Amino acid sequence: MRDTSQLAKIFGDHTVAQLSSARVxxxxxxxxxxxxxxxxxxxxxxxxxxxxxxxIDLSNLNRQFLFQRRHIKLSKSQVxxxxxxxxxxxxxxxxxxxxxxxxxxxxxWFAQFDIVLNALDNLEARRHxxxxxxxxxxxxxxxxxxxxxxxxxxxxxxxxxxxxxxxKPVERKTYPVCTIRSxxxxxxxCIVWAKDxxxxxxxxxxxxxxxxxxxxxxxxxxxxxxxxxxxxxxAKLAGAMGTQDFARLVFDKVFDExxxxxxxxxxxxxxxxxxxxxxxxALSEHTGFDPAHPDDHAVLEPKEWCALFVHSAERLAQRRxxxxxxxxxxxxxxxxxxxxxxxVAATANLRSLAFGIEQKSIFATKAMAxxxxxxxxxxxxxxxxxxxxxxxxxxxxxxxECHTSxxxxxxxxxxxIKEPLAEPNPxxxxxxxxxxxxxxxxxxxxTLGDVLDFVKGLDSDRDLQLGDDISVVEGTRxxxxxxxxxxxxxxxxxxxxxxxxxxxxxxxxDDDGSIVxxxxxxxxxxxQDSLAIEGFESVPIFAPLPQLVSADAESDDEDDxxxxxxxxDDSGAIVxxxxxxxxxxxxxxxxxxxxxxxxxxKLDEISVISQDDTKRRAVSDDDIEVLD
Length: 628
Fold this sequence. Notes:
It is built from 18 helices and 19 strands. By secondary structure, the chain is α+β, with helices and mostly antiparallel strands.
């Protein structure tokens, strides 16, 4: 049982009492989440709720220490919360296995918590939690890691930058192994699988992961049996290397047998699109395609990808067999080696085909394949510790003492640095909004026109300050504007507007950006009124937007002129431009290796907030503190 006397000496008895009564939501129970849940349980937090969508995979066990071999295929959040209650029996921990973006987790659900801590690994969910915390007015501690780099920051509506105040890169560079192996959703997931799993298993050093001595229980016996069969199948494939059937055997294993095994796990596909088994015979029909000279910039047809897969697999097998038997490590992936690149591109795109994911050209695959940073358990542990320290300060109402903290290496004498929290970006498309709650008695009986009439009829002290010409948007859908009124007579339910959804009201008269849009979070009614709005007393007052300087304005100093010197094309390449002359493409991964930009760009890849962003504000040496 945890003794909190040391915490009381540091933070005081009152703060310790606040920690024990605070209701904490932890979103994510993976690499950071396991460390975070353990730290919370051992730091005086007694009421903890965890939510995570995923099951435990064998590959999680090397860094997610709350999980053991007997837990394979079980819920991450449920196993993790059960583990921390054994560390500290005083903890009242609960868990859900679900997607945090589901509409059942509405503004009222988030509002029941005193603080939210994000330990997520995907951008969409992090953006959603950021928005929900702003709407529910709950402080959020955001985190991220990328290899040896990490970052923690505090998000408090109207006081600090939110997650969206600075633009984020589209692609991230750190991926959970369980996602790569079982539930890919993006092209990069398939590329990582092809390069770091299949290529490595077949042509580099063999992996003994599938042959691990795993304790078998009734809950995981089927999964472990499948893993043993996978290990035996890989060994058989290595023995067939150099034979005429080698490429077909590999294809049948990874795109037929393995997909069938995943489809047998029914629970995994309740909220996901199931994959499709690929037929080698159908895809290997002759097409006249020359696999020795593919078009690197084209997205090939499925039969062409299959032909390229067969050709590259056979060439790699010949090279592997020709190597000196004393050579250790086997072949190594090199993006400039056509055989290895073509094998990775072909297998990644065939996997994308099976999982219904967008396919990429060989050129695009080459640009993406070299940017994978492994998840580091030590970084996760450091970041989780910093998150708890920030959470304690937030709950103690000591927001001015909070910081954005960074884990870094190679740049300074210390590996952890911090800087003051930045103020909100006045042009942020997410936090420069007035968030209110619209309580609806019956979404099936209330029309969109009823909502607009109700909003326009509010008393003067509750005026939304949008004027008469109001537009209504839900996500990317236009529901209403003065020139489009087809939906006015439709019930909210028919439009998909139910509890948990949000609609944004904007003014058609806002030519200079001075009118602040209103976001209405749809929630269940608490009274007999058909419609009611809450939250006016908590809406912040926004300062007028600063005037933008015209791009055509002349500069007083020629050195201050800023021009757009590059564009990013569809393949992910950066093309440098000089007036009317376009130079040869430079791949984004090459640009990121420039020494002066490396630190900033890698922090950007974490998808939180950049430490050194001149568009946000200038940071002097006095603003940054080095921590021991």
